[in-house]
Structures are given as structure tokens and as C-alpha cells.
Amino acid sequence: MASTADSDFNILHLVVGIIFIWISYRLFVFFRFFRPKSEHSLRSVAVLVLGDIGRSPRMMYHAESFAEHGFMTYVIGYGGSKPIPALEREPKVQLRYLPEPPAIFKSLPFVLLAPLKIIHQVTSILRELLVNIDEPPEYILAQNPPSIPTLALVWLVGRIRGCKVIIDWHNLGYSILELKLPKTHLYVKIAKWFEATFGRTAYAHLFVTEAMRDFLVKEWDLVGEKVVLHDRPPKHFHRCSAQEIHDLFSRLKGPLSSLKDFLPESEAPFSTPMTDRKSSQTPTPTPTTFNANPISTTAQTYERVQPPRLRPDRPALVVSSTSWTPDEDFGVLLQALKQYEKRAGELAEANSEKRLPKMLMVVTGKGPQRDEYMKEINRLQADWRWVRCLSLWLEAKDYPTFLGSADVGVCLHSSSSALDLPMKVVDMFGCGLPVCALNFKCLPELVKDGKNGLIFNNSDELARQLESLLVSFPSSQRLDALRSSLLSATHTSQKSSAAQTQESEWCSWDENWSRSLKPLISTGVQI
Asked: For the region Disordered, what residue ranges are annotated (predicted)?
């Protein structure tokens, strides 16, 4: 159940937002007279992200695709994390960061702070969409959720400036509120009404799953073009070479320094816990002198240094990307790690031929529950020998390399609506990384159990799957089979004449975007 302060803020956000939007509509209606709807900046788009731009990968990929197709692209949202490099170097992209509330607001009591923060947010967004972007953009692309006040704001600006609104339905905002409040709660009902009212009409609706499209079309009778745009990884996501892994872990030696007693011994720049580039041959000592000063030939020289190779004694690298929120139960993974630690110890004591390797479990991301879970993990792993769990934040440029270096991915996403799919799995698949994913209604649209990954329902099943994939690591037949199947599907050509199944349609984000969304935005403005 949400706290009283959280609940009060939600309802204030809704009420103040609606009132302010209505007042804004009356104040800004004069824009109709000063700028006719036909006077647009053709081939331009405003991408609205009501959150950290750098933590909104799908919207960043949208922005990159629009820019690559000749659109002047304004990305509006909050700062914090670095965006993908393509957005910073693309000349047709302008990153427009929304200002944080003034520091003086923090000293105000909640009853004043909450409405002022909402008004500040709404004013900042409207200023960007109505004033700072001088020429009305041809399109406004809005991410949903959050629904409040995003959907109402783009609805308002679309009518004032004549822009075509595209809503990208990632999930349902009211279903996220249902994680904290009962479905019958007044706030949930109001949030659902708000989302249905302002989200029903748009130039186009994009959906991450077919199930979400079918549900919203049936429930809300959506008006506008309807396109399923499955998440796909960008083209630079790939399985990493030993050289790329070596370079990455050379940069990560700081965050890994606390694990020296757990990881294999390494010596930069010749080795990392995952790779080794020293020559396997012992140099033959040949005394040499120059100016009467002896030069040792037993030391490593450039000619004797070999290309990096994966170390046979490396730990299995398992990664889980999470936002540390209630819709991802990290407790499931924690219980599975406990069982893996116990099982690995049992096999080692029995001198079994089928042994389990050490496991380095890395959890990437930021979120409200991180500190709570990491405190519990650190308490447990003080006595663990076979498992270490590390929380790590990776910048956008390092994240795909890390996924491409890992051996197994774990997804704990359960979906508040059961209608969306986890983009983290898409990213992992793009990097040739097999995934163990928590089961929910729509998951089979993405994860094919036993083909490109495994589906589990509880911690016991996850523990058994990790054991089956990592036994006899690094020579794991089951893991190799999943990876080979996944890489084969990832490299399937879009030009293939195979039946149009989910498997044969697997491609990069760029190919999928051009095939699905480009036809909607290629004809220009029609008034």
C-alpha cells in the first residue's frame, strides 16, 4: 500500500495537472491566430520523455531513427544519465533538458511543494513545446507511461499548433498505480479515465506487443493508425570479441577491485579476470647489452604479447538489468543465488565431473529498492564461496559491450499490465546472450522456451536453469546450443522469403523501424 504522502502527491498531480492544462489551453489558444496550422517545420519531430533521457532507450532509438531519416529532432526530457553517443554527435538532434524545480522548493511543506512541483513541470514542458521550439514540429512523439500529465499536454499542443501526435504505448500508467493501490481505489479509476480520455485519439499509436494493441483497441476504441513496433536492439549490439571484453574489463578494474579475493588473479594490461593476453611460451633468456647496461629478455615484449583470449578459469558472468522497482521481484533471484551457492559447494565436495563454476552476478541499473536488497546480499555473500553479486551502473556506451561479454542474462520483469515486453531481453538477444526470464502472459511473443532462452516461474526453477546452463562451464553444451540458435535468428536477413513468423522477422531496430514506422511519416503533413 502506498504511503499517505505518495497517494496525496498522485491525486494532487492529477487535479493540479488537469486544472493547469485547462487554464493553459485558454491562455495559449491565441497561437491559432498567430501561426496557422499549415505553417509547420516539415520533417521535424519533438520526442517527449517525461523522465531521464539517458534511461529511456526506446525513445533514444526513436530519436536517432528520425534524425537518420532527415528529421530535425528535438528530444525533451530530464538529464541525469548520458544518452547514447549517436544523439550527442547527430547534427539533426537537439537535446533539450527540462529544469529541475528550484532548490527553495525543498524547504516548503508538502501541501505547497507538491502543487508547485507539478506546475513547474507542466510549465517547463509547455514552454519547450509551445515557445522554445519556434516552428511547430510536424510530429510529437510521446512516451506512455507516464500518462499524467504527458498525454494531456501533447493533446493540448497538438490542437494549438496542429502537430500530429504519435503515442508510443510502452505500458499502461494506471496498471503501474495498481501495484500500490487496489484496482477499485478512486485514484486508480481517475488515472484510468485520464489515460483513456487523452490517449484515445492520436495520429498514430505504437505498441510494443500485439496483445497491447488488441487490448487497447477493444477497451478504448483507439482512433488513429495502429502499428505494432516490437522492441529490437540497435545495430551496434553484438556478441563481443575477446579483445572487446579485455578492453571493457580493463576499464572496470575499479568497480571490481573489491572482488580480488573472489576473481582470478590478473595483471594489467596483460590480463583481466575474464581475459589473458600473455604469451603461453616462456621466453628464452638471451643476455643482451647496450652501452654496457644489461637488458633483460625474460620480460614481456610487444612481439611476444598475444591477442586476448578468454580465460578457462574465469567465473561465469551472469547479468540482470533492473530498475529496482516492485514490478521486478529481486527476491526471486536472491533465493536462486542461495541455491546455486549450496549446489556448487555440494558438487565440489563430491568431486563430481560435472562441476559448477564460480558465478559473478552483476545487476545493472538504478532504483528505489537497490540499497535494501544490496544490504541483504552483502550480508549473505560474506559467507559465500561460489557466488558474488555486484550492483553496477554502466554508461550507455559500455552497456551493450557488457551484455555482449556475459554468459547468461536473467530477467525479473513481470509487467504490471501483462501487455508489454522487457526491452532488457531484446538488448540481451541482440548481444547473443541467452536469457532466463520470469514468465508472464505476453512473454512467449519474445522468449521461445528452449530455443533462445528459458522461462521460469519461481526461484527453484531459476536455480535449476542456471545449474543446467553452467554445469561444466566454460564447455556447456546447453548454453552453446541456446547461443547458436539465438545468433542464427539474430542474423536472419530481412529479405528472407521465409514465412513471416516472429523468428524470421528478428532484425535490428533500424530495419524494424524503417519497415513499421517510416511509411507513416514519409508523406509529410496532411491538413
From this structure: 267-314
